[in-house]
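Ticket #4471: structure output looks truncated?

Reporter: J.K.
Steps to reproduce: submitted the chain below (144 residues) through the standard prediction queue, then opened the result file.
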Amino acid sequence: MKNTVKTLLVALVILLTGCFNSKEEITKIDNPELVAVAFFNALYNENDIKKAASVCSPQLSRVILHYRSSKAVARHLFNMSYDNVVVSPDDSGVKVREQFKDSAKITLYFEGSYNNNKVKDVKRVLMIQTNGKWVMDKILKDPF
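Returned output as attached by the reporter:
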């Protein structure tokens, strides 16, 4: 049962993020988990650094745009490189997210390949709500 729910959630996230093609649409998502997934999809799967930066706080956006390419951001800021990747939020049922009124700590799982090798990773990000929109504010320290 858990695997079925997990599979459906991953499929839903992929389908929903596939619907958001323009920068305006990615900024209109009102779920912090989906914003985080859309950010990493823009960065890794679409190689669109400007789209990814559009859902970041001004400070993080400046840092991301400084690198000028999605591969440089992936390598230097996140220490993760992928040829292709599937990003999914934590759905363990215990703490999908630690959300308060204006912020949420999101755990994301990455599963993909790089140079024909399978690569898995976990990242935690801090999402904040400003002007009614969820934006990525910080990359949190590795919890593991």
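Triage note (M.O.): checked the attachment and the full token line is present. The first strand starts at residue 84 and ends at 89.
Status: closed, working as intended.
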